[in-house]
Write the structure tokens for this entry.
Amino acid sequence: MKNRITNKAPLVNQLDIHTALLNWYDANARALSWRVPPRDSKMGVKPDPYRVWLSEIMLQQTGVKVVEPYFQKFVRKWPKINDLHRATETEVLAAWSGLGYYSRARNLKACAEIVCTKYRGNFPQDESLLLKLPGIGKYTSAAMLTIAFGIPATVVDGNVERIVARLFYLQDSLEKLKPQIYKHVSSFSPKIRPGDFAQAMMDLGATVCKPKNPLCTKCAIQNFCKACDKGNPTMLPKKAKKKIRILRKGYVYIGITKTEKIMMLVRPNKGLLGGMICPPSSEWEPNNFPANRPPFAGSWTMLNQTVKHTFTHFDLELKVMFSYISNVPENYVAKKLDQSLITSTPKVMRKAILEAVNYVKSNIV
Ligand code: SF4
């Protein structure tokens, strides 16, 4: 007869789940740059808290595949937290470019500053102190405690939520279930190998208990799973009704000198793309284009192609205005329009710059 986990899981089933999941993880853990593989972890190799922290900040709102090359670039450039502390915010933002949610990069720099000056380069091993650091919330502090320091804590990300909703057959919408899921996870998170267990849950969610096609027949905890038993795991977790997405519209102004320098300015720290060096743009208004008021004098042309970009909470449509200019306007910096500038510019603005570059090329020919 199958063991069945209930909402009040008997201890024996919890232990069975730990064993099944850790055995599976030992053989199937994903090889990730920031991770100590289970074989080494069992031999006592400890993770580098700096690498765990850096990866967790990058993984907030971004998938593993996208994060990998950025993580490798960061640790090559700044192998230790002290190296990152010595970097300027502009350098960190430029290296972060393309990863999105730029407040994470600014928090990274601010957090490195505090850890290096207040804690001599060592992250505190205490939830309340971790939570005071910029960019570290409940999830990241729990992940750091368990993965970096082996201190049991409740680690719940999207993958874990999905597994738990299916395992216990929790039928409310995910929004309503969050506190219940958190309770379940804290009741069955183990004291032995807590970091490996947390990572095993993440890996199971990413590679087996996938949102659309869960591989139940290959799942290490299939025997305990109520949703699998009922035959409809993909129905869970139930999602809240989709909100209607807002479409914002605006203009971006690309002013270029004959010597191929582009006019850029630093965006305010607060708000989207905060602190990044970008070409100027208008406000981004919902549904309708705002007034087209170039920020400095020029002979402006509207390019044919409109730049489209998707942010988490809205879609953006930008009309690209182009002008050659001869003098650098007040408050602007003239940046050499080369590959390094393009790659260090946020994606949405990169698209606009490339439109202007194509326009210039096609008019030269
Ligand atoms: Fe997910 Fe299927 Fe495993 Fe249940 S048995 S946890 S639904 S993969």
In short: Residues 163, 166-167, 208-209, 214-216, 219, 221-222, 225, 227-228, 233 surround iron/sulfur cluster (CB under 6 Å). Confidence is low (pLDDT under 50) at residues 5-12. The chain is about 45% helix and 15% strand.
